[in-house]
Design brief:
By secondary structure, the chain is α+β, with helices and mostly antiparallel strands. The chain has 13 helices and 31 strands. β30 and β31 form a beta hairpin. α3 runs antiparallel to α4, α6 packs parallel to α7 and α11 crosses α12.
């Protein structure tokens, strides 16, 4: 038994090799003593479809004695054509041998015979690169670096990359650090960069059209890193990833995006639509704390300076009363109006109460009737309504009544003393977004980064029709606008199959345009590469249903919606307060969930959840977002009240 465990530890597996449309690839060490995978850093440089891949894999010897005579194996994707390959061990180039499929199969067979994990057999069948690792010092590390060039495959206009593959059946330990960097140059415009598995950053990097980055310390691999990107000459690119099981409706993820990056087809100022914007900023007395007022002035200064000629704007600042920069309507952006607005911003100071209702009414009043322009309010507050109308539901009704021009409302809650339900629904019901700034975060930086995103609309008022295929349960129900550097992602279900025409209509460059795309909806998926799509769709539907339930009071929940949430959560493995509470009941009662009365779902109204549920949720979401933290604290305060 000890020998088997020791041998198993010696065959630590993780991803090291990747290709478009690939399955599972592995890098592992075969050695006399157990060796850990310590660091895994991957860089892929892509020019058109030619990729130079570099894998830096560091192994650690946790033993008090040196490991001598190890062999490192790196698996190659099927049909890979290798060029300019080199393998370095601690900076010294080592002789490497490419094992064909038969030899690779024998390697894995030998591992199993010697007590290794049978799960490793799932990797066999592809070529292996084999190189010797002569020695790893006691408690030391050795770095293995593989570099080679190959050509990526393209399906339609989509390229799919998969890396950091793991086998959940193999014994794994956290990596000290892991990272993926993908640098892309393309003759065709790049659209729709998306990872369904990891939170990527799209950054500018000199010499590259687009760079994608991800990194994490103390990383426990649970699933592969998957990245999609599209290249197409279309002004707005559309792509689809769909999955369908036998005798079931299919699920799809549709992505819309203008050109991303600085390469071919890059957007110019002429592609950016003019906008009308009102900055609605809290200047109540609580903004004096922690330098918040100074940061808010800095954020507002940045936003005003970022406005383009052709935009129109106004500023509403509110405390006990709501005030405005321009008494009537909006101001046309030019050098003089910017300078005047910046002088106004510099004089803002914190005092008084928080008249949220009056401020929002005044902001909407300034956004007049002009249906051809995108209208938005950027609303930021650090407190609860304390002046005038204080009931959150009444404020929501007032805003809905006065928003007759389809104004988008983007909301920032600063700190924990905010009503998250009020702010969430201001954004949700008015086609905007809600974000939260934690006490330790910088208001100026967060709002400035946000305005960099939404300050450049490219396509607005979107409508999508599907010809020849029936779609349903599409989320989000209201299609967001398309901004420069951003993409819109829709999730839905479908019946029918084959290559179908999808029409996207919206306002582009000041006129209404319709784009047609030929997209394929499979009758039956051939593999599991897109099997993540049904769960993503279910997650979006659950989010929608939970928001619908939040509109209800705790004692007046729609049981049909609760049942639907519970069904989807159990089928697709999604944690929700309902399924969490059912699990808590199971633990307490030793059987099926019983009565959930007594505050089990109070978190969906203005009240909070039980203390047990808060602890349970904390265990389930250790890295909660700023919004979730704000909502949890908000719910806890309401419960204590």
């Amino acid at each position: 038994m000890k020998r088997s465990l020791k041998t198993l530890l010696a065959f630590t597996a993780l991803v090291a090799v990747v290709a478009a449309g690939s399955v599972s690839y592995a890098c592992f060490m075969r050695s006399p003593q157990p060796v850990q995978v310590w660091l895994d850093h991957i860089t892929i440089n892509i020019t058109d479809q030619v990729a130079t891949k570099t894998y830096d894999c560091t192994f650690k010897n946790p033993n008090p004695r040196a490991v001598v005579g190890g062999t490192c194996y790196m698996e190659l994707e099927p049909g890979a054509q290798i060029d300019n390959m080199s393998v370095l061990v601690d900076g010294k180039e080592m002789k490497a041998e490419i094992l064909d499929v038969e030899k690779a199969k024998q390697v894995f067979t030998d591992i199993i015979k010697n007590g290794g994990s049978p799960a490793l057999l799932e990797y066999f069948g592809n070529q292996l690169i084999q190189t010797q690792v002569p020695r790893i010092a006691p408690n030391g590390t050795v770095k293995v670096k593989l570099t080679y060039t190959t050509v990526l495959k393209k399906r339609g206009d989509l390229i799919r990359l998969q890396m950091l593959n793991t086998n959940p059946k193999a014994l794994m330990q956290p990596l000290k650090s892991a990272s993926v960097t993908v640098n892309i140059n393309s003759k065709e415009p790049i659209k729709n960069i998306y990872s369904p598995t990891h939170a990527i950053n799209i950054v500018e990097k000199e010499g590259w059209d687009v760079a994608v980055e991800w990194k994490q310390e103390n990383y426990m691999p649970k699933h592969p890193f998957v990245l999609y990107y599209q290249t197409t000459p279309e002004q707005v690119g559309a792509s689809i990833v769909a999955h369908r099981e036998l005798d079931e409706d299919g699920s799809f993820m549709m992505m819309l995006s203008p050109t991303i990056g600085q390469g071919a087809g890059k957007l110019t100022e002429a592609d950016i639509l003019p906008k009308d914007v009102v900055f609605c900023i809290d200047t109540s007395g609580s903004m004096l704390k922690d330098g918040k007022m100074e940061q808010a002035r800095g954020a507002l200064k940045y936003c005003v300076e970022s406005l383009r000629d052709g935009d129109r704007f106004n500023i509403v600042d509110f405390s006990t009363v709501a005030r405005h920069f321009q008494e009537e309507g909006l101001v046309q952006v030019d050098d003089a109006s910017r300078a005047k607005a910046l002088r106004y911003v510099a004089k803002l100071h914190a005092r008084g109460g928080t008249a949220i209702n009056d401020a929002l009414e005044l902001s909407l009043k300034h956004l007049g009737e002009d249906s051809d322009r995108l209208k938005m309010i950027v609303f930021a507050t650090d407190g609860l309504p304390t002046i005038g109308e204080r009931d959150p539901e009444a404020i929501l009704k007032t805003v809905a009544k006065h928003n007759t021009e389809d104004v988008r409302i983007f909301v920032f809650g600063e700190g924990f003393d905010v009503n998250t339900k009020l702010l969430d629904f201001l954004a949700l019901e008015h086609r905007g977004e809600a974000d939260y700034i934690l006490p330790e975060e910088n208001i100026q930086q967060k709002i400035s980064r946000f305005f960099d995103r939404v300050g450049s609309p490219v396509m607005t008022n979107l409508k999508i029709t599907f010809d020849g295929v029936e779609v349903k349960d599409v989320y989000p129900p209201s299609i967001p606008d398309v901004f420069r550097g951003e993409q819109v992602i829709l999730y839905g279900r479908y019946t029918g199959h084959g290559e179908k025409t999808v029409k996207v209509t919206g306002t582009v460059a000041g006129e209404t345009k319709t784009f047609e795309y030929k997209l394929t909806f499979p009758e039956l998926s051939e593999d599991d590469k897109s099997s993540f799509v049904p769960r993503l769709w279910a997650g979006k539907k659950v989010d929608y249903l939970l928001n619908e339930l939040r509109k209800s009071s705790p004692g007046d929940m729609n049981e049909e919606l609760v049942d639907e949430v519970t069904y989807l959560a159990k089928r697709y493995g999604i944690i929700t307060p309902y399924t969490s509470y059912l699990m808590a009941d199971d633990l307490a009662a030793g059987g099926p969930a019983g009565n959930t009365s007594g505050g089990g779902v109070a978190g969906f109204g203005f009240g909070g959840r039980s203390s047990f549920m808060k602890r349970f949720d904390a265990l389930q979401t250790p890295a909660a977002s700023a919004g979730e933290k704000a909502r949890q604290v908000n719910a806890a305060k309401e419960t204590s009240d």
